[in-house]
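Retro notes (design track)

What went well: tokenization of the new backbones is finally stable.
What didn't: we kept losing track of which sequence belonged to which structure.
Fix going forward: every design gets posted as structure first, then sequence, in one message. First example under the new rule, 337 residues:
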């Protein structure tokens, strides 16, 4: 038991938890509005799409790959839902299902080129980001509504004023006076499911083995190509979930929703402890890192009136300091051994 506790304390996830607690202490002491649950929930909800996609990109990077196309799939999902519902007369949930299927196919296509054709993940997903953004623009032109306006007016409220159907996903609040946004509950469920998938299943172990040594994994009977391709397909599904929630929350369907998420997603995954070379990473680490970044941006805006345009600077500095510090510790440990 003592060794287990010592292992937890020494883990990177514990360090991230301490940083998160420190943020609450520092920002909360400067401005007590930072500690108001309503503000915290609202801030997390605004950042939830990045948090969700980061969970899925973690698996891609553990295999030694990278995915910078997920943000374009967010917009593709959004505009697909809008056009199918508004212009083709689909039931809203049928449109959602079709959008998820399209996103999964997009991820699988990129994953196929990486896994079966040996193309560099950066090249494939960079091309994919342009391809899927362009596809979203093409789909938007099938609508009678101009692309720059976006499609709105989704099924919204019941007679009693509560959100219903599709809009419920992005706007409803549950648990009475606690008023917990449904989006946060969905995120917590996804964290649990992804943790089980990556850390408690044979498939998850295969992902780690592929990242550590692809040849050794192949010799042990793992279909490494299929494993790699599946991670990109799952990331497509994760981006679709983010796109669905974002469209529901904003009541607007646009092809360019989420187009600025890429750097934030990669930052959250790397800060969470996932190695860019593959073989190491964790869902809990990514989830904590996402919250650390989210609270940092919130705190700097609320307490120091920092412009949203300048928030990437402190996040980037924090990432450089943390990654450099971890590398320095690794070097020192290697020299001691």
């Amino acid at each position: 038991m003592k060794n287990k506790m010592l292992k937890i304390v020494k883990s990177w996830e514990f360090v991230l938890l301490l940083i998160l607690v420190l943020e609450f202490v520092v920002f909360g002491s400067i401005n007590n509005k930072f500690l108001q649950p309503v503000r915290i929930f609202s801030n997390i909800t605004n950042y939830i799409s990045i948090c969700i996609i980061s969970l899925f990109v973690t698996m891609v990077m553990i295999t030694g790959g990278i995915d910078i196309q997920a943000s374009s799939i967010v917009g593709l999902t959004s505009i697909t839902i809008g056009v199918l519902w508004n212009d083709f007369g689909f039931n809203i949930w049928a449109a959602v299902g079709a959008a998820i299927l399209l996103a999964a196919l997009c991820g699988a296509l990129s994953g196929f080129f990486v896994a079966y054709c040996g193309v560099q993940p950066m090249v494939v997903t960079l091309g994919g980001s342009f391809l899927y953004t362009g596809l979203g623009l093409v789909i938007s032109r099938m609508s009678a509504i101009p692309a720059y306006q976006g499609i709105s007016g989704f099924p919204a409220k019941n007679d009693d004023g509560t959100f219903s159907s599709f809009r419920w996903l992005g706007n409803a609040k549950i648990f009475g006076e606690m008023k917990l946004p449904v989006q946060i509950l969905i995120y917590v469920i996804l964290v649990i499911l992804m943790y089980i998938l990556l850390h408690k299943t044979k498939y998850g172990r295969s992902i780690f083995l592929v990242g550590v040594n692809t040849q050794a994994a192949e010799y042990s009977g793992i279909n490494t190509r299929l494993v790699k391709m599946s991670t990109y397909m799952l990331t497509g599904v994760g981006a679709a979930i983010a796109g669905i929630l974002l469209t529901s929350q904003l009541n607007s369907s646009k092809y360019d929703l989420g187009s600025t998420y890429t750097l934030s997603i990669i930052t959250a995954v790397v800060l969470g402890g996932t190695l860019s070379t593959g073989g190491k990473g964790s869902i809990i680490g990514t989830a904590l890192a996402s919250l650390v970044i989210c609270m940092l941006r919130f705190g700097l805006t609320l307490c120091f009136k920092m412009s949203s345009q300048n928030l990437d600077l402190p996040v980037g500095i924090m990432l450089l300091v943390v990654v450099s510090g971890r590398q320095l510790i690794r070097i020192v440990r290697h020299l001691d051994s």
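Added context from the reviewer: The CA atoms of residues 293 and 306 lie 15 Å apart.
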